[in-house]
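Recall the central idea of this unit: under ordinary conditions, the amino acid sequence of a chain determines the structure it adopts. In this exercise we apply that idea directly, starting from the sequence alone.
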Amino acid sequence: MRIEYKGFMREMIKKNPVTISPEANFFEARNLIHEKGIRHLPVVDKENRIVGIVTDRDIREAAPSDATLLSVQELNYLLGKLKVKAFMTPKEKLITITPDTLIEEAVQLMVDNKIGCLPVVVEGDKLYGIFTETDAMAHLVDIFGLKRKGTRLSIALEDKPGTMLGVLEIFKKHEVNVISIVSPSFMVEGKRIAAIRIETENYEPIVKDLEKAGYDVLSIGRWPAL
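Accordingly, the structure predicted from this sequence is:
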């Protein structure tokens, strides 16, 4: 049977997120954010089309300064009249994605634009879900395989085709599964650094064979720490 997973957003996003109407008031938005423990609140119309988003920062900025001369009653009256559409980040300023956006593309958009949330839309502007920085971190934990017990080896490799093959052959010799392989873009003394997590705690004979084959094992870590 053919596997359909393609690394798109539909596997990671929060579907049917908590939303609010643009006609709701300040207190309704603030209470929803606090009660649900969220930082991003999509604003949608009656047809579930996204018209903006309210963040915890928007709430703080909309709230009066502590130095205000207004009484509590006056403040409550004014904030009760303040509608979400008056202080939300409008749709025109939002960056959105679709369920078919690649996960890494979504994360890159968040990093490049210094934002903590991407609304996921279909049919142009209908809200399908939401992808947050917390979801991005959960994806990082997943691809690193951090929920699986094992050993992390940091190995310096020549930056040329086929270098990793020798490492994998040694793992195969020891009948060890690879949990994850991550290699950052930067170089160290002309070599790539590969952080490889393997599903074993008996790493000594593997490290011995790697070093015998000429690989530099820079660090060894066990996860979770025992």
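The helical segments are 26-36, 56-62, 72-81, 84-87, 103-113, 133-144, 163-173, 204-212.
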